[in-house]
Amino acid sequence: MNRKYRKTLIAGNWKMNKTPTETKAFMTELKGLLPKGRWCDIALCVPAVCIPAAVRAMRETRVGIGAENCNPNPSGAYTGEVSTAMLVDAGCKYVIIGHSERRAMGETDEEVNAKTKAALEAGLIPIVCCGESLEQREADITEEWISMQIKLALAGISEDKIRKVVIAYEPIWAIGTGRTATPEQAEEVCQLIRTVVRKLFGSKNARATTILYGGSMNDKNAYELLAQPDIDGGLIGGASLVPSKFVKIIEDANQPTA
Ligand code: PGA
After folding, report:
1. Cα–ligand 1 centroid distance for 236 (angstroms)
2. Is 257 a member of any domain?
3. Catalytic site includes residue 101
4. How many structural domains are present in the chain?
């Protein structure tokens, strides 16, 4: 982390977990545990049907609510989809884009790019995900793969908008597996992402971009990961479903930095 130049963000990704009723209970418990005072930015990205309950429960808090996906079109014949304007109107501040689980369902780099632009246009903060598979890491093409994903995701985004984008590095082999990247592995790729952003948008913008690590980050390993200079927070799946674990990670994000 480097709080002098950029925001620290701890974001939960609930995936397809919790009902609206369970959301209300979780938020009540979380509110009781959240540290008082100025801490890092906090987001909880929840299933679309849980957004109203989450927004209502966290209205007076510093926790921003987010969605896990959006459709880039403004409106129309897209059965089952949710637009960015709908998310904003429902009280969302964030939206996860290009998660590897959605890419595995067929989401393309072009769609990730269109969704990122639509989110920015609507005033949402996109949390844009990238990450390599185990095969790609073993074939030693992580650098090329991540550079390509970032270039395609951020293509055509204007300089005044880039600082609103949060990037999440999530190695696919570490998601939900309990196998976390080492702090060194995670830092190496987060640093690479910052270099790519620097080439595209200049050093001031690169220095101001929040880059998260995600993939089995939990209350036990967060401290070390967050101590890395280019890891500005976490995108947390499993551990964000348990209020005490999520709060411990938020506390770890408050560690002193150089
Ligand atoms: P995990 O999920 O923390 O359960 O590995 C992270 C994510 O997929 O965003």
Report:
1. 5
2. no
3. no
4. 1
Does some domain include residue 3? no
Atom of ligand 1 nearest to the CA of 178: 5
Q: Is 68 annotated in the active site?
A: no
How far is ligand 1, taken at its centre, from the CA of residue 143, in Å?
A: 21
Indicate which residue's Cα is closest to atom 3 of ligand 1.
Answer: 237
DSSP annotation of 98 reads S
Instruction: Write the pLDDT tens digit of every residue in 127-181.
Output: 999 999 999 999 999 999 999 999 999 999 999 999 999 999 999 999 988 888 8
Burial 234-251 (b: 16+ CB within 10 A, else e): bbbbbbbbebebbbbbbb
What CATH number should be reported for the domain holding residue 123? 3.20.20.70
**209-252, pLDDT tens digit by residue?**
999 999 999 999 999 999 999 999 999 999 999 999 999 999 99
Structural domain span for residue 242: 9-252
Residues near 149 by Cβ (< 8 Å), separated by ≥ 6?
Answer: 98, 109, 112, 130, 131
User: Is residue 235 situated within a structural domain?
Assistant: yes
Output the pTM of the full model. Answer: 0.97
Question: Is the residue at 237 inside a domain?
Answer: yes
